[in-house]
């Protein structure tokens, strides 16, 4: 994977972040979702380098081999604001003052928080398979609750999810069926497997969800109340073989109140589009970026 890329561990304000980067040109940072690591981009990142971009992939804090800070009662160390600070710190360390941010799933929450909190740094934003956290919670109905029940399970303060998942992480995360080596690619699968087998990583991934229902929700509400919007051009992408259209109808319309300028379309894929249909995803990213 990632021929010609550099893999290193960067210290960002005392937080260790695993980073892989390569290429020259306009900078773009790729942010993975749950329960992946940065290696989910293995088929996308080299194509973007070939297209003339400087590409940065990182493990979000708590995920993969990035640092795992001790949490608090508010789950603030796993807020998207804290993770956005990591993104900006990594890009500064690599010499990229202005950059595009592409995020999938949980990574998309970090991506749009980076654009909201650091508008002077983010030139373009791509959000994949998501709507803002506050929108998801306010629009939650029976269909969402049935399909996305894990949000509420993961968020329980008593932490039963850690016990359940860590008892058999490979079955929980479909490591040999839906998320098999054939589906993910063998090296990407090995990195995914190492992550889900680590109880500390599982705990931190769940803290990400707990932050989503608490501090992240409050931050979104504060931004909306203050009239803050994403200032850079934004592209919303969604997997047409996932449930975004069934849950939200016009996904772009959900994003429109949050963005000064937004467009979007579906990609013929299941949820993890960087692995399922990387070529179509790259075409969409190249055209927008």
From TrEMBL:
Stretch forming the signal peptide: none
Swiss-Prot/TrEMBL keywords: Hydrolase
UniProt xrefs under InterPro entries: AB_hydrolase_1, AB_hydrolase_fold, AB_hydrolase_sf, Epox_hydrolase-like
Annotated Gene3D superfamilies: alpha/beta hydrolase
SUPFAM superfamilies according to UniProt: alpha/beta-Hydrolases (SSF53474)
Molecular-function annotations in GO: hydrolase activity
AB hydrolase-1 domain boundaries: 26-154
Pfam families xref list: Abhydrolase_1
Name of the protein: Alpha/beta hydrolase
Source organism of the structure: Kribbella hippodromi
């Amino acid at each position: 994977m990632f021929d010609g890329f550099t893999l290193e561990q960067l210290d960002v304000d005392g937080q260790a972040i695993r980073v892989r980067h390569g290429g020259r040109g306009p900078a773009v940072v790729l942010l993975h979702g749950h329960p992946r690591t940065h290696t989910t981009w293995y088929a996308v990142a080299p194509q973007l380098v070939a297209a003339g971009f400087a590409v940065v992939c990182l493990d979000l804090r708590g995920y993969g081999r990035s640092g795992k800070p001790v949490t608090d009662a508010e789950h603030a160390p796993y807020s998207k604001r804290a993770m956005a600070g990591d993104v900006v710190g990594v890009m500064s360390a690599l010499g990229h003052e202005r950059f595009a941010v592409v995020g999938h799933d949980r990574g998309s929450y970090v991506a749009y928080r980076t654009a909201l909190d650091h508008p002077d740094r983010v030139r373009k934003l791509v959000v994949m398979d998501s709507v803002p956290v506050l929108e998801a919670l306010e629009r939650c109905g029976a269909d969402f609750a049935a399909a996305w029940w894990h949000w509420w399970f993961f968020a329980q303060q008593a932490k039963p999810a850690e016990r359940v998942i860590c008892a058999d992480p490979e079955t929980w995360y479909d490591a040999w069926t839906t998320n098999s080596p054939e589906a993910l690619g063998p090296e990407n699968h090995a990195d995914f497997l190492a992550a889900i087998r680590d109880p500390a990583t599982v705990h931190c991934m769940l803290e990400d969800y707990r932050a989503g229902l608490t501090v992240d929700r409050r931050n979104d509400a504060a931004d909306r109340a203050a009239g803050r919007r994403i200032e850079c051009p934004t592209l919303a992408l969604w997997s047409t073989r996932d449930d975004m259209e069934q849950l939200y109808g016009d996904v772009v319309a959900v994003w429109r109140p949050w963005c000064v300028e937004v467009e979007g379309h579906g990609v013929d894929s299941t949820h993890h589009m960087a692995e399922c249909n990387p070529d179509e995803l790259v075409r969409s990213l190249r055209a927008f970026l």
